[in-house]
Amino acid sequence: MVHAFRSNELPQTSHAALVSALRRPAHSYHLKTTFISLKGWRRMEENRIRSITGWFRQHFGKPRNDLEQVKPSKCSQASSSSSVSDPPLPSVLSSSFRSSLRFDVFVCHNDEDSDLAQSLTSFLEAPSNGLRCYLQERDCPAGGAVSTELLQAVQDSHCWLLLLTPNFVKDDWCSYQMHQVLSEGPMSQRIIPAVVNMPRSQLPPELRFLFTVDLNTNKDFGYTLVYKAVLHYLKDMSEKEKSSSASHSDG
């Protein structure tokens, strides 16, 4: 095999050594040439490997410490923050007074306003709020007498929310429910009128003397007011119950 070399790849030899090499037999010269060619080829391969290795180290050779110090991504931070538990519920929701009745809020509404009623109920029943609501279309057992179940639900609820809309004031069934509520607790904090899409002047006369929650402009804020009204009633009655129990024990 014949190997070609560039001038800079040939080993540096003296004139005497070159003459001596030329006087050697042909087979000796051939072996020497082969040895020189193998040596040069090996040097070329070593240089090429070092060049490739250096390129990989430059582009991909991050130290291990750098990899360990990579900050967590936004996704991992979001998942960790979402796993944080909700704040604890108000202590009044674990009171004995509250547990004396099955529901915290009886929601009275017209069938045409079911979406709004369900939206408000979902807010009140959210894990962060923890209230128990009664919706007739959801909680009334099948086959039961509607009027009987209604009266039972009214009596088994701490507060009564009247979702007052133009549909409500035109509905005889809603009027019947409203009067049931008024007969159970007239002039009490238990009745919470929430007004939607109608002026106060169009409210039923029986409700005009009560403070109302306005859901016309900001429903989210109105939902929060309803929630606070229920908590206020439960807290007030729970404290009165504790005070009454303490006075009886002292007597």
From TrEMBL:
Cellular compartments per GO CC: cytoplasm; plasma membrane
Domain TIR: 101-230
InterPro entries: TIR_dom, Tol-interleuk_rcpt_adapt_Tirap, Toll_tir_struct_dom_sf
Record-level Gene Ontology MF annotations: Toll-like receptor 2 binding; Toll-like receptor 4 binding
Tree of life domain: Eukaryota
One Pfam family in the UniProt entry: TIR_2
Region annotated Disordered, chain positions: 65-90
Any one of the GO BP annotations: positive regulation of canonical NF-kappaB signal transduction
Annotated Low complexity bias: 79-90
PANTHER family, per the entry: TIRAP, TOLL_INTERLEUKIN-1 RECEPTOR DOMAIN-CONTAINING ADAPTER PROTEIN
Protein name: Toll/interleukin-1 receptor domain-containing adapter protein-like
Gene: LOC113061886
